[in-house]
Amino acid sequence: MSAQWEEFKAKQPTAEKMIRNALQRDRLAHAYLFEGTRGTGKVQASKLLAQSFFCINRIEDCEPCGECHHCKRIESGNHPDVHIVQPDGQSIKKGQIQELQMEFSKSGMESTKKFYAIVHADRMTTNAANSLLKFLEEPHSQTMAVLITEQIHNMLSTILSRCQVVSFRPLSANLLIKQLISSGIPQDMAPLLSQLTQNIDEALALFSDEWFAQARKKVVKLHEALQKSEEEALLWLQQEWYKHFQDREQVNMGLQMLLFIYRDLLSIQLNRKEKLIFPSIVGELERSALSISQTTVLNSIETILHTKRMLDAHTNNQLLMEQMVLNLKEGS
């Protein structure tokens, strides 16, 4: 098995099996919809499928050889019969789909086959989606489409009904942590980053971001202040928190990390230390876990989740944080 195919199987065994079976039986659909959260390998899988579709020396009837001119040109992104459509600004417009249709009305440059992928297909305008619908209703022979989305609920039902849906599941925590560590993330940081994103590149960007490094430290300090007194925690908000966590997205990130700390307390109380998201502060977490009940931890988790929901409702961030501190201390 090729390295690419092995990686696909390890990340997405169900999706890999579905596509492998279709290739081996020569029963590929004319249109697929790859759906799932960011970082689950949908775009890479579409490239792998394109290589398998065009490859002239497939291995075991399904895997691309990686050596023929089709495989190499697709890998380098310059195959004349493979077309990738991405949003132009915030959306995919009707003109982009019409240009694609014009391309497909021409003969193939290097084979009788043609392949196109539409990334963020949920961002098509209504006119673009309707144009694509006509394209899907009358598929050209030897033509394959892959639509890629993180928001399947935003897709037109008429388009969904004309595609074979392949779901990409979130990567398992253990697999993602291993990949992060092999990419250079320290072992004690990998669990946290694996919880914040499924995307390796995003995780690496977060790790190298000084704002994020400081944010992590300040969240830990807020938890320490909460263990002492209501006054200490409120003072910490005034002196440090508000200066660092300024917009809604930053506040949400801080709340998410605080939530992970309380989840770690629960993991310790349930004797599941292997699941810790903040292993570097395990000593402090163990002391905190001994000083409060499991019910209090669960109530604290609900308090933070409620604060996150209120944040989305555009409530005043400062008042919201102070109320959260008061509620956390009241329940302790």
UniProtKB/TrEMBL annotation:
Keyword Transmembrane helix included in the entry's annotation: no
Gene Ontology BP term (one): DNA-templated DNA replication
UniProt keyword Disulfide bond, yes or no: no
Matching Pfam families: DNA_pol3_delta2 (PF13177), DNApol3-delta_C (PF09115)
EC number of this enzyme: 2.7.7.7
DNA polymerase III delta subunit C-terminal domain location: 249-329
Highest taxon of source: Bacteria
Name of the featured protein: DNA polymerase III subunit delta'
Organism, as annotated: Bacillus oleivorans
